[in-house]
Amino acid sequence: MKTIRHKSSSRPAPSRELAELRARLSDAEETVRAIRTGEVDAVVVAGKQGPQVFTLQGAEHVYRVLIESMSEGALTLTADKTILYANQCFARMVKCPLEQVMGSSFRRFLSAEGRTMLRSLLKRADRFGSKIQVLLNAGDGSHTPAQISIRPLTKSGFNGATIGMVLADMTEARQTEKKLRALTHRVVQVQEAERGRVALELHDNITQLLCAVLFRSQALADKLSPRDGPARREAMRLHEMLGKTAEEVERISRNLRPGVLEQMGLIAVLRATSTGFAHRTGVPVKLACVQLTARLPADTELTLYRILQEALKNVEKHARARHVTVRLTQQGAFVQLVINDDGIGFDPDHHPAGRRGKGGLGLLGMRERATYVGGNLKVKSVRRAGTEIEVRIPLPPNATATN
Ligand SMILES: Nc1ncnc2c1ncn2[C@@H]1O[C@H](COP(=O)(O)OP(=O)(O)OP(=O)(O)O)[C@@H](O)[C@H]1O
Ligand SMILES: [Mg+2]
Questions:
Q1: What is the pLDDT of residues 55-78, one digit of tens each?
Q2: CA within 20 to 30 Å of 267's CA: 1, 41, 231, 360, which one?
Q3: Which mutation among 308, 310, 317 tests ligand 1's pocket best, with the greatest number of atoms within 8 A of CB?
Q4: Could you tell me the distance, in angstroms and rounded to a whole number, from the CA of residue 360 to the centre of ligand 2?
């Protein structure tokens, strides 16, 4: 800590008074200069009770130390976004010397989009502050992802500053997010491959075997004459049960197979999935689909199909719904699938499509699938009022739809 020492005032002899006053004036001038240039943090005055320390803007000094040791960027700005104060961390984030940062406009570190976001953030930022994520333009031409938290300062300003800002470097968080996304995508791919393999095994082995047994059970029933009464009835019942089992295995295999889309087309598959759900659960499904004039890309069709399956699985498992509505529409250059239920609903903030979700992977997988084909997924849910899953995927330029 730099200090300036001042002598205590004692009663000097008249002859020395002028010299003493001159010396004190020069001391005072030196103190003011040192304070102005930031060379000193405290003044020590020798008094009768020993030296007394007066810190200069003591609280501000403590905050300055604190802010300099932060691992976030900290700024204070004027209303026109001139940077009055920046810490070293911010200078490192934008790869610019601190002296070039202070006094310059904060806008130079933002893209046009970032500036617009900041403007609207400042409009709605209330006393409790707000946050946005932007890319900062660094001095070397690179970009640093950052989360800006804004705190409007008092109306009169703080040393002229009206905006306080903390900027968190999101580079690491973005990389982790990217890795997590790649991992989730891989999980979805592996899941799809595994489903295909199981479907093939079911079809090639179990279904074939069941068909053979079914055929033999029919032959057995035919061989038994009406005189064999109970045995014949038992054989007929066995045949019936085997028929139902074969149908069920075929249904499971069809649901697992992405190839089913190729054979039946998207709308037929959505219909079969909805009808199957209604039969199995007793919950009626109202289905409304536009007829797409051009075929969607295979991965978009598969995404819509899997999202419907997963959403209906959730309705069955969690919703206790009485009605379900499924709508496939075209909204401009997007195909949109909306699945509605009137069940118990849930709090999406606790399961925000898997981002911070507890437990299940269903919503996370749905969001991931939608993102992978360039779309997005929204979950709206209100307790006791039901849930809506909306997925929007961009159409290829040549695809149009009619009602
Ligand atoms: N339609 C719905 N109605 C009511 N609650 C729902 C509905 N869909 C999802 N939820 C709630 O959201 C949670 C997360 O759903 P998600 O599909 O991600 O996981 P899960 O269904 O629990 O498990 P998984 O899908 O991995 O088998 C569910 O546990 C449930 O509490
Ligand atoms: Mg689920």
A1: 545 556 777 788 888 889 999 888
A2: 360
A3: 317
A4: 6
CATH top-level class of 60-169: alpha beta
Closest-approaching ligand to the CA atom of 358: 1
| CATH 3.30.565.10 is right for the domain spanning 261-403 | yes
User: Six-digit token pair at 36?
Assistant: 């102005």
56 backbone φψ class: left, alpha, beta (φ>0; ψ -120 to 50): beta
User: Which ligand number lies closest to the CA of residue 349?
Assistant: 1
Instruction: State the pTM of this model.
Output: 0.65
Neighbours of 374 (CB within 10 A): 13
Nearest atom in ligand 1 to 389's CA: 1
Q: Ligand 1: residues within 6 Å at CB?
A: 314-315, 317-319, 341, 343-346, 351, 354, 357, 359-364, 387
Q: Are 325 and 386 in contact (CB under 8 A)?
A: no
Residue 348 CA: nearest ligand 1 atom is 12
Model pLDDT, residue 158 = 53
Which tokens is 123 given?
């409009």
Considering the chain, what is the average pLDDT of its residues? 83
- Predicted confidence at residue 386, as pLDDT, reads 95
Residues of the chain with pLDDT below 70 are: 1-14, 28, 31-60, 125-129, 154-161, 351-359, 399-403
Facing residues of 348 across strands?
none
What's the 365 CA to ligand 2 centre distance in angstroms? 9
Q: Are 347 and 332 in contact (CB under 8 A)?
A: no
Residue nearest to atom 30 of ligand 1 (CA): 318
Token readout for 301 is 């069709």
Q: Give 85-90 contacts, CB < 8 A, sequence gap 24+.
A: 85/161, 90/167
Q: Which residues are within 8 A (CB) of 216 and not within 5 positions of it... i.e. 6 or more apart?
A: none
Mutate to test the pocket of ligand 1, among 184, 318, 380, 390 (most ligand atoms within 8 A of CB): 318
Give nearest CA residue, ligand 1 atom 23.
360
Distance between Cα 361 and ligand 2 center (Å) = 6
